[in-house]
Amino acid sequence: MSGHSTYQPQSAFMKWMERRLPIASLIHSSFIAFPVPRNLNYWWTFGGILAFLLGAQIVTGIILVMHYTPHADMAFNSVEHIMRDVNYGWLIRYLHSNGASMFFVAVYIHMFRGMYYGSYKEPREVLWILGVILYLLMMATGFLGYTLPWGQMSFWGATVITNFFSAIPIVGETVVTWLWGGYAIGNPTLQRFFSLHYLLPFVIVGVVVLHIWALHMVGQNNPTGIEVKSDKDTVAFTPYATIKDAFFMVCFCVVFGWFVFYMPNYLGHADNYIPANPAVTPNHIVPEWYYLPFYAILRAIPNKLLGVIALFASIGILAFLPWLDTSKVRSANYRPLYRQFFWIFVIVCILLGWLGGKPAEGGYVVAARILTFYYFAHFLIILPILGWVEKTKPLPNSISESILKEGLPAGASGPAPTARH
Amino acid sequence: MMKTLLAAVVAVSVAAIAPAIAAGEAPHPPRQKWSFSGPFGTYDRAQLQRGFKVYREVCSVCHGLNLLSFRNLGQAGALGYSEAQVKQIASEYKVQDGPNDQGEMFEREGRAADRFPPPWPNENAARARYNAVPPDFSVIAKARTYERGFPWFIFDLFTQYQEHGVDYLAALLQGYEDKPPQGFNLPSGLSYNKYFPGNAIAMPKPMEDGRVTYEDGSPQTLAQYSKDVSAFLMWAAEPHLEARKRIGFQVMIFLLVLAGLLYFTKKKVWADAH
Description:
The complex is a heterodimer. Chain A is an all-alpha fold. Chain A has a two-stranded antiparallel ribbon with strand order 1-2. In chain A, helix 3 runs antiparallel to helix 5 and helix 4 crosses helix 5. The relative contact order of chain A is 0.12. By secondary structure, chain B is mainly α. In chain B, the strands form 2 sheets. Chain B has a 3-stranded antiparallel sheet with strand order 3-4-5. In chain B, strands 1-2 form a two-stranded antiparallel sheet. In chain B, a hairpin with a 6-residue loop joins strand 4 and strand 5. The longest helix of chain B is centred in the last third of the chain and has 31 residues. The two termini of chain B are 42 Å apart. The interface between A and B is large, with 61 and 60 residues.
């Protein structure tokens, strides 16, 4: 977040302030003068969308907490109290529950964009790993939040997930008891989950600061995957990137609003409108949609411990992506083979997600095993080999040259400045 | 070569999955027409009032509405009752209150702010009386669903079909069969219902044609009762549905206009960049 400041304090107060706490010039260099590649497409707006969603989740969450009661006997009814009696409580609650889903929609697009354009490669490894950490924190936060209404799926989802830890040899059962705060899931579990669900978003904010800091050290990647060479390759963050981000964020909000106002329970489970009952197990215990691919991987492995290891490995492997991908070329636009494997990988992830929502029986298990194997093969076999065997297309000399070649970048409207005015 | 590989991945998956799909499940509840479906849906007040009558005269013997107060019946977007009507309805119920100055619990007439009184004092009492705990009806329309399956759940995203719960409830009430099909082993004390998961349901057939008298001339048939009471339960589960859809439309218009303005602003800003 340094090195670009052209900020000149105007007023006497700002001059005084600048010598004591140069926060204005920090903001100026980070969000106004910061140079961004001029060829960024709309896939690059999801970072801003994620920041917006994080803020929205925190705001709606804080309001919900004002009316929610984290107690096993009262949580379910307090959520219904929010839905029925609190002014616009239904809106706040639906914004928060659907906001979590939108958060994952945006983060998956953000991650796949990073994979397509090789945004994790040198020198952006730390930026990428911070992103993987953020993703893990999000998953934990989402899981904890889903338990809070204390419906059937909250309860049984928590049971299934916490039981993962019982697979740990020797100390497994002790760890699970420690997590539950008792010998079964109950009020102590709900209260600690609530506490952690409130804590983790602020941890996410902290890591987001690091993520953005790292981004501002190395600069943004771009669709060509080549580094910025001169000022001709960039535009200032404000107004160019801000207006573009704002436009697409509003478009994204249309989708968000579609769910909140018209399909608020589409992404949830009907069973979670049944109060938690330890004596009755739901027919299918299914996690939230955004965990389904990993749930499919877990159940594809017949051994519990190995299944849990595979589950965590499937996420952890992302952190090693910068070194597993051996290609020197970043962008899939210049990697004809990788581009196709990328799309196969996307389809495999979607199919795994679909299988995660199906009962673990018969053909579903066979399919999940094949796709789980492919998931890991993508990282451990295909990516390392591709880097050696793939014949990449010639890269343009610079970002501005690539724009001239392809015509106009996304966002330009006229053929040339002379045609205007 | 790549295309072949892609095709192979898909083919293998489909081949592995297909038999599992073919296994088949319970019949899907028939789709009903609901006044509250779609982006501009609103409740049919007369239907909600009829449904409430069915609930009161039939369901409420066993099923509570614990999260609702009488005043909810008169709220905006509810059954359309006036304040006086709500007071009247509330006064027809006996509510336990107390303790009084002597430390005794006592019964009094219901008031608008009171919750619907529970049909049984505790779960054990319900179990002793009915052999099962009849579920509370406050959110039941959202707590029941049926599997739509691929690709329907994708189409639902665009058609806004989300009346799975009420469709199921309406079907369930009409799904009783006096004799279970050949070979079905029905445990004693249970009834056969073709829409209930597992088909053996603890609730006996709750009503038949002519059970409830309608004053507005609507047909007094099981089909009509089932629809009306299901609509009432949808309202009970989602009392702010009308406000949600109305505000949603305003928000959508606002967002689309804002998106349009931002788009042209963006074009203008970027035009200067070249």
